[in-house]
Design a protein that fits this description.
The chain is built from eight helices and six strands, in the order αααβαβαβααβββα. It has one domain: Rossmann fold (3-Layer(aba) Sandwich). Helix 4 crosses helix 8 and helix 6 packs antiparallel against helix 7. The protein has 256 residues and is of the alpha/beta class. The structure holds iron/sulfur cluster (SF4). Iron/sulfur cluster (SF4) binds next to helix 7.
């Protein structure tokens, strides 16, 4: 779907239907990430939050930008219970560096318990269906519950990241919330130039060969010449590599 078509598809499910018209009018075309964040702060105040995985530099770049615009910005991270220690360490570093309200969102304990009792703790290696089930229970459902309390949220998605993200719109509807992706047009080099220029804290595993850091059992370092996404769910086809957070189906196939 083209960006225009996707943006036009913003529906009346939004709490504020007037936003659809704003998007359709091309209001966000040509705006810089900082300009989009400024608009978001003015429009939503405390009714939006930044989604940050602490496993990619993009969310941290946006947090750095946001902290220059809004005091004590809201940030949420989905704690799947399977993240590497490096990611938990980064959350604490970021908490010290920025005066941000970091909200840690957990899956439902009972759902996790029932899943692992039926399928085992390492079910994700057994089939695509079981991997998606794990992502749905540990990521997608907690995300849906959290987002139901927001009017908008901001992500660090970029079109360049994966074939599944080539058509990512700058702004779209996600249930009742407006989903805002200020970095869609940025390149990998743009992101890392910002990190260096502003000394943004990032996950230490990046320096150990991890382009992105997800759950510990589902992420590995890549070798020279490998695609950056090769370290996520490396036993699957490229086209299935989404966790469902950023696709239009509940159990879809990314990694945050
Ligand atoms: S990335 Fe792996 S461990 Fe994490 S939720 Fe998905 S399947 Fe489960």
């Amino acid at each position: 779907m083209s960006e225009t078509a996707a943006e036009t598809a913003i529906s009346a499910t939004l709490r504020d239907p007037s936003l659809a018209g704003l998007v359709d009018s091309g209001h966000f075309d040509g705006m810089s990430p900082a300009e989009i964040l400024t608009w978001t702060v003015e429009k939503f105040g405390d009714r939006f939050a930044l989604q940050c995985s602490f496993g990619n530099p993009e969310g941290l770049v946006l947090l750095d930008m946001l902290s220059r615009i809004q005091p004590r910005p809201r940030v949420f991270v989905l704690d799947t219970g399977r993240m590497p220690q490096a990611t938990y360490d980064l959350i604490d570093r970021v908490r010290d560096r920025y005066d941000a309200r970091i909200e840690v969102v957990f899956p439902e304990a009972r759902a996790v318990q029932e899943m692992v009792e039926e399928h085992g703790v390492n079910l994700f290696y057994e089939s695509l269906e079981k991997r998606k089930l794990c992502c749905r229970i540990r990521k997608v459902e907690p995300s849906r519950r959290y987002l139901a309390g927001l009017d908008a949220y901001v992500t660090g998605l970029r079109r360049e990241q994966n074939v599944t993200r080539e058509d990512t719109p700058r702004v779209s509807a996600d249930g009742t919330a407006l989903k805002i992706n200020p970095l869609v047009d940025w390149t990998h080099d743009d992101v890392w130039a910002y990190v260096r220029q502003h000394d943004v804290p990032v996950n230490r595993l990046h320096s150990e060969g991890y382009p992105t850091v997800g759950c510990e059992p589902c992420t590995r370092a890549i070798r020279a010449g490998e695609d950056p996404r090769a370290g996520r769910w490396w036993w699957e086809d490229e086209a299935t590599k989404e966790c469902g957070l950023h696709v239009g189906e509940e159990e879809g196939g990314s990694g945050i």
